[in-house]
Structure formats: C-alpha cells, structure tokens
Amino acid sequence: MWIYEKKLQYPVKIKNPNPALAKIIISQLGGPHGEMGASTRYLQQRYHMPDDRIKGMFTDIGTEELAHMEIVSSILHQLTKNLCEADIKKSGFDTYFVDHTVGVFPQFASGNPFSTETISVSGDVFADIHENLAAEQKARLTYDNILRLADDPDVKDVIRFLRAREVVHYQRFGDCLRIAQDKANDKCNFYLYNPAFDCQKPDCHC
Amino acid sequence: MNDKKSLLNEIRALDFALLETGLYLNAYDCQEAKDYFKAIKEKRENLAYEYETNYTPLRMENGMQNGEWQWHKGPWPWESEAN
Fold first, then answer.
1. What is this structure's pTM?
2. Does the residue B82 lie in any domain?
C-alpha cells in the first residue's frame, strides 16, 4: 500500500502562467519518457525481481517517480492558471484546451495519450534492468531538451532537480544490474538463464 | 517557533537525505550511511511533529489536530500557495 504525504518532494511556485511551455513539459507527465511510464514500469517489474535489494530499489524508485508525476503535474497546473481566451489562442494551447480545458491529462507533447506501449515488462531480469537504465537516460535527455526550450527560472529550477534524480536512479539501477549478475554468476553464467523464471523449483539442477 | 515555509523546506531537505541514503543502503551495507540515516531520521521526526502540531498535518493519521479535522484543509501541495 501507499501513504500520501501532503507536500511536494520539491517545491513548485511559478509566478507567470505560460501555456506554450506547458504544452512541451506535458511530455514528462504522459510522454514516451515521462514519469507516469517510469513509475508504472518499475512498480510492475518488481514482482519478478529475484533479490530483496532489487525489490527494495524498484519499489522505492517507482514510488519516487509517483512523487515526480505530482511535481510535473503541479508545474502544468500552475503554468495554465488564470488564462484568458486570447492567451490560449495565441500560445497554441487551443488544441489541448478544446479537449481538456485546463485539466492535467497525461499525454505526449505531440498530443498522443499516455500509452503503456512506451514501457516494457519483459519478465527477464537482465532485459528489464537494462530497460530501466535506458529509461533513466531518456528521461534525462528529455529534461535536457526542456531546459533548452524553457526560459522561466521558476520552472527551470524544478526541472534541474528532476533531471538530477534521473542520474541518481541510473546509478542505483546500475547497482541492481551488478547485484543480479553477481548472484546469477554464483550459480552459472548469467546469460544462461533468467533468475525470474528458471531454477525456481527447489529440486531444479539446471 | 520556525515559520511554516522554512520548516516545510527543512523537512523536505531531510526527507531528501533519507531517500537518497535509503536507496544507497538498499545496495550497500555501509556503516557510515547507516549512522547518517539514523541521525537524520531523528531530526526529521522532531521537525515533522513541530510542523504538524503548529501548522498542518502531513499524513492523514495526524489529520486530527486540537480536536478538529484538519486533513482536508488547503492549500494542497500542487497549489503555489503551499510552496
């Protein structure tokens, strides 16, 4: 289960609404490298992880990604507050507004809705950890691109925090890979079997 | 008494230290990290108690303060006034 704590992990206080910027940042909520995909991916992959240290890491990083969904959503909410109709037309926010008004809908910057097609739960321990290492890099590069396009210091400060977390998560998934490989190598070469499926029966001698 | 905003920011900073150390401890059995976690945790508990009793609950389990249900009262975290 989860317990809600009534605070953001990192504060979001945006003075100037900017719907054009919201149209870009929305990708880190529901886009191909976004926080919704990240939390869903790690929290759904944890069930087949073979080691307690890795189960802990997937649970804790997946949980932190939920807090990041909340931070990105808070940015979007504050960037689209107190808009007049002229702002909406002028900024190009009109194509979003017509369907969602100023609700915070998880979608790509291109307009596609969030899709689990952007994540993988392969059931293979090594493939899934490698997927997560790549996912952290892809989220990092998306934040880099947002920093290239954004000019509001209130927004950039929060994006820099989120970007730094991707780097730390990458390090921790690297620890998970090392732990899983070392443990599998104790038995035989780690490429010869999937610890999440093979060798699960007590009488298995493979 | 600390003011609401700086107290909340201090709790955020301590929570960040706990999370970062906790993730590290999942992978490494490190005495220095364990000692650090313990010290930060104690500090965090004291500040959270001060914040929840003087200002607003952080968790629903502490939603009753001074005989009143306070949990649902805003601002909520995504609103700029809360930050």
1. 0.95
2. no
